[in-house]
Amino acid sequence: MTAAGVTWLHRNLFAKPFDIALSLITIPLLAWVLYSLADWVFLVARWDVLFDSLRVLMIGIYPVDQLWRTWFAVAVLATLFGLGLGLCMRPMAASLITLAILSGAIGVAVEPVFGAFQAALTVGCGWLGLAACLVASRSAKAKRFALPIMLVALVALYLVLAPPGLESWGGLLLSVLLTLAASVLTLPLGILLAFGRQSRIASVRVLSTGYIEIMRSIPLILVVYWIWVVVPLLAPDATVPSFLRGLAGFTLFFAAYVAEYFRSGLQALPPGQVEAARSLGMSTWSVNVDIVLPQALRVVVPSLVGQILDIFNGATLVFIIGLTDFLRAGQMILADPQNSSRIYEIYVFLFAVYFTIGATITYASRRLEAFLARGSR
């Protein structure tokens, strides 16, 4: 062990008597937990239930003959994530090479189970995301057109997946699609509510404030269920898929929180800038769009990215309206008597996927926050 390592251990783990006692207790305990977990994962657990049920966990009951649509969705999602990450960071070449090798290793690992074609598609989607990250981080033209490209890609994603029917969406695919759609739709509605809460028109201000406070005072599951029940009553002759009704509930609920995020951003803006713009004869629309909104957006973007994680975790509530999200798909697999004894394997896999996605979103949020902070200096 190097001198730097010894110094780090002494400073962080064995600096004081209390630190020494705490380290002597927690380090062996942690080592025992990790050893027990590794022993169960590699020697005791029977992971064949995941291989047999992976399609249900990933895409639900989506038609098998339309799987090319889901692979298109995976490629688009990888590209979108790569573009978003490339806009707020400049990855090192070593990191990209490591991730590319890791993607290849995952492809090699899944090849014996799912075949060479599926493994090649997995590796290709991973490399596509890395390429998008590299291009977005190093090309000024790509950064300029990144937002329109993302919006077009999102529209294409839903158009390609829609033909088999929205009711066939399920598993992790449903959770991701619901999260993306709700995150995009809540943004404009939340901005309008934030401006409405600060409007000089009393009726608009009261209505906006009342809507925000009501939505923040009731649980999400109640809003989703209420929208699901009310829509058929208002339009009995119309057939509205449950996905769209659930999406409406998520959008209406989280828009209130987006409005509060933007209200904090508006309050952080110095009032002198708005007064100066008005003294120059600028219209209210120009003041809000050209001066207020860009600066407020810089303040609230980290919070908005963090809310994506809240929406993704809250997507499990759509089971109440009959949709099969990722968590519900795992519970359906356990409902089969042949798999009832595999509860640990299923829930450990669900935990690993949720943790990976959550950690990735959190990491992207922190990188974006650091990028915006650097740009404001």
From TrEMBL:
It is found in: Cell inner membrane; Cell membrane. It holds the Pfam family BPD_transp_1. It is a multi-pass membrane protein. Keywords: Cell membrane, Membrane, Transmembrane, Transmembrane helix, Transport. Residues 172-365 form the ABC transmembrane type-1 domain. It comes from the Bacteria. One of its GO terms (biological process) is amino acid transport. One of its GO terms (molecular function) is transmembrane transporter activity. InterPro entries: AA_ABC_transptr_permease_3TM (IPR010065), ArtM/GltK/GlnP/TcyL/YhdX-like (IPR043429), MetI-like (IPR000515), MetI-like_sf (IPR035906). Belongs to the binding-protein-dependent transport system permease family. HisMQ subfamily. This is Polar amino acid ABC transporter permease. It comes from Aliidongia dinghuensis. The lineage of its organism: Bacteria, Pseudomonadati, Pseudomonadota, Alphaproteobacteria, Rhodospirillales.
